[in-house]
Amino acid sequence: EVKEEISGLKKSYLMIVIILSIRFSTILVRTFLWNKAIFIK
Question: How far is CA 13 from the centre of its chain?
C-alpha cells in the first residue's frame, strides 16, 4: 500500500512539474517576443 501511495505522489508531482514548466516556458516566450517587438519599434 505504501509503495502505491509513493508512486501516486510521484505521478502527481510530475504532472505539477510539467504544468509549471509549460507555463514558465510560455511566459518566457511571451516576454521574449514582447521585448523583440519593443526593439523593433
Answer: 12
Q: Where are the domains of the chain?
A: 1-41
**Helix (H) / strand (E) containing 41:** none
Residue 23, burial from CB neighbour count under 10 angstroms (0-12, 13-18, 19+): exposed
Question: pTM for this one?
Answer: 0.60
* pLDDT per residue as tens, the chain (41 positions): 788 888 999 999 999 999 999 999 999 999 999 888 877 66
Q: How far is CA 36 from each of CA 11, 15, 20, 41, rounded to the nearest angstrom?
A: 37, 32, 24, 9
